[in-house]
Structures are given as structure tokens and as C-alpha cells.
Amino acid sequence: MKYIAIALACFAYLFLYPRFAVVFANEVEYKSTTRITVEDNNSLYIQQDYELQNTSSQNLVNSFSINLPSNPSSIVAEKDGMKIPVNISRSQINIDISSSPIRLNSIGKIKVSYRVDGFVSSQRYYSEINWPGFKLDGKENQHITTIFVNKNKGDLLYRQADESQVSITNEGYEISLPSSKGAYLVFGNIPLTFDINAKWVINNVGQSDANYRIPLPSESLGLFQYKSLTGADYGYLDDYGNKYVALRLNQDELREGTIVGQWVPYTGFTFPEDLSLGKYQANVQSLAIDLSAERSQIRKALLDLLNPSFEYGLSKRSGIIESLTFGKQSPIDYANIFQAAYHSAGIPTKIVVGIRTFPGEQNYKWHAWLLVKTEDGWISEDPYLDDLHGFSQTVPFVPHALPWIIINQDDELKDIAFYSIDPASVITSQTSSFDNQDQEMDISGELFLKDAAYSAVALPLYLRVTNLGSVPVSIKEIEIMGTKIDEHLYKYEWLIPGSTREIPITGVSVDDPLYSGKKLLEGYVEFTDGNNTSISDLSLDIDLEIDYQRLAFNTLLLLIIVVIIAIIARRKFSTHKKRSR
Hints:
The chain is of the alpha+beta class. 16% of the residues lie in helices and 42% in strands. Residues 1-26, 272-280 and 410-437 have low confidence and may be disordered.
């Protein structure tokens, strides 16, 4: 039997093998190095070097297959410097090496090059590369991919790629990672400065007189330098340092205005911590969705429930029930409903009001989207565009969206004031187009009394400040008679050009109750535009009077206290005298 088996093996080797020994990649051990070059036309030029070792049960390997994430083109394959036949079947490359097969326990080297499309998309200022990786057998450390991006694509703005390393050469960037891993990369030249010329329109239709606030770009997200502001009455600062322009509209009044300036985003955005839920939370149960599900399932259920309004604009934010009854939802409705649902599911979420471009468009428009906190940190999510265009806008990096301000669930839409608003016309540039010499601070400060001034009594003192310059300013410090005034009296004042505000000055008095006559009050008020400071000296001559009525009352009160003390002391003395007897 032993000799018969040996004879059959020899027969198979001599006569059968050349016709049936077809071994694919999963039957050999192999290593690979891949270099992916991003070309100017956004195609990926892929060069792969394979080192195959025949460890199969066959004496010869005469074919090799590669599975690709996309249909390739321009394929060239070589073995030992000689071109070899290639056959394409959908996204699989079949390479014929029968003319030079790899023998048992031998090593063969194959070079393959080809192009694929559909993994790079370019916008106005940046390009996104979304590479899914290869499906490979064998040990991951035996398969390495390097993605090369020429410096003409700009800087590496964002990288999400597991186990990746970045090196910078004179030609560009090289990102190395295991071949089985995917990579999301963003390259571009985001302008250092965004020149903003935004027009707003507020129509107070069918309402009584109302106050409105329009938020200006949050300085927690970047630096905004103001060129001009029109249409507003005065400025306002909140506890977090966010700036607003404020106005009061009469019933049926329409007001237009502009915000012109430059916005320079910080390289690293910081977001506030999650705050309490708001009143809109109460209606979230009307959504009738499973809030205990995963975020992706909640998101899908909401998208199935809502319908984007094609008449684009940031309309008044309604409650959830009113919004669903209407049948069509605006971007702010989407943001409101998603935030309420996510909050109920315990997912920290913020609404972002800002300006952004839409897919296929170059101009910026007012918009609202979300910031959602995940295990990997805060990401941007735009459910309105998800529904409108049918593809996900949930990405960690959105350079085409400029956050204007971040609001919480409990903020009123009236404080956002975008009832009827035109798209913002935004021009971007690498360098400043505004002449900084035009930006001048010219502020006047004047002390005055609103009532008679008495000695030893807090003076009815006020400070009237007027912004005569061309830039908005805030008050940094007020000092009167060597005393710094409590900042809470003025921290919410933000003066737009041409506006005047009156600030109460408390805690200032002349201590001598018997002083009457002239008294000179001196001090200063310090202003800042965010970059520079300016000081306006203050002085006021006042006529002090003695408040005889208060003085008589205080004298009488003092005498009563003295009499009471004397009576108590006398009683104690009498008690002590009796005990000593």
C-alpha cells in the first residue's frame, strides 16, 4: 500500500498539476505594502507590492486575486520586471502568473498599480478623503498602507484613522496605517480670516411691542472684529461673554440691519458643558419614539417623522406639538426636536446657529444644526440636511459651517431673532481687507446726579457713556474716588457705535455727616474693543448738603442706644452691689 500511494502521488505531480493547480490569495502567505497617491483630479493612484510565499499543498501557484473597495482602472501588473495578464471582475483583480508560477516554499514578488475614484471630494477650501481600507487575510502588521497627499492640497486639518502615523516631507503628507484600517482625512487651506457682510430682517408681524437680541459670533469660538453694525439700538453682554445687538420693535414694525466685520476662528474649538433642560422638553413624549434606543435609532426614527420645509429660512422656533402639526419643519425645528429627544435620552446636545454652505453651493446661508457629544467627543450633526439631501451630515469636522453662537435648550428663539432673514453674503480671504486705521475708539464718559446729594449718604450717582467711535466696546473697569465699582453694574453693557447707556454707580459717598459745600468727584472709566483699551477721565463738581432730618434721626437713635446701655449697666451694678452685702 505504501508503494501504491507514492506512485499515485508521482502520477498526480507529473500529469494532473499543470491543469488544476489554481491557488488564490487566501491559499498563500503574503505581505504587502501599498502607496496611495491623491492625484489632482481626486483619483487615487494605488501602487502595491506583494511578497507571496507558496505554503499551500500545491507545488505551483499560478494565479493571484486582489479584492478592492471599488472598481479599478488603468491596471498594470508585473512579476520580475515583466508585465503579466490581468483580468477584472467587478472590484476583483485576477492576476495570471502561470508563465512564471511560484513553486512550493518559494517566494514571488508582484507589483500592481491601478486607479480608483469616488473616495475624494473637494469643496471650496478643502478636500475630504474617506478611504475604507482593504479586506486582507493574514497578520495586520504584514500589510501597511501609506497615503500620500501633495502639499498643493493644503494642510492636514483633521485626521481620524486608527493606528496611523503622520510624517511631513518637502512634497506633502504621508499617513501610514495598517492596510485593513480606514482613514478619514481633511486637507485644505481654510482662510485665516472670514470677511462677513450679513444682512438681517426682522418683522414683528401681529405681535405687541417686543425686544429682540441678535447674537454676534461667539468669542469662545473665534475672534470677531467689527467694521459696522446697523439697525440695532444698543449692545448686550451675557454672563458667558456672548455679545448681542438689541432692538425694540413696535407692533407690525419691520427692521433691517447689517453686521459687517471679520471673523477669525480659533484653531481649537471649545464647547460649553451641558446645562439644564428647557421648557420645550415637556412635549418630547409626543414624538412617540423609543428614547431608550441607541442614538442612531433615535436619529432614524426622527428623520422618518419629520419633513424638511423647502422654503428655507430660520423661522420662529415652535414647540414640538405645533411644529409637528404644521407638517413641515425648518432647520431650527429640526434642531429643537432633535435636541429635546437627545436630551431625554441622556445625550448632551447643543443647538448651533451659524452660517454655512449647502452641498453644491458656494454662498453662505444662515442655518441651524447640532453639536452632539459622543464617546469620541463633540461632533456636528445636521439632521435638516440629512433629510433634505438624503445623506449624512454627521461628521466631526465641518469647515464649511461657521458657528455663530451656541444656545441651550432653555434659550428663547426671540433672543435669536431670525424670523425672516436673508442669506448672509460671506466673502473669504487669506488676508485682512479692512483698514485697521478705520477702527477707532472714541468714548465719552460723564458723571451726573439724579437727585440731591447729601453727606454720609450714598450719592445718586450715574455714569452716562456714549460710543462716538467706529467700533463696539465694552466697559472693562470703573473707578470713582479710589473705589472700584462692582462689575455687575456694567458687565452686561456693550456699546455699539452711536449708542448711549446710563449706568448706576453705587457705594460712593462722602463720609463726613457734617460736611456741606462743594466736592469734586474724580475717577475714570476704561473701555476695550477686545484688542485695545481706552480710558476716559471722569470728574464732577457736586453741592453737598447736610441731611438734617437724617442727622437728627441718627442723633436721636444714638441717644436712645446710650440710654439703653446706661440702664443696663446701672442694673448690673445694683445687682452686684446687693450680692456683695
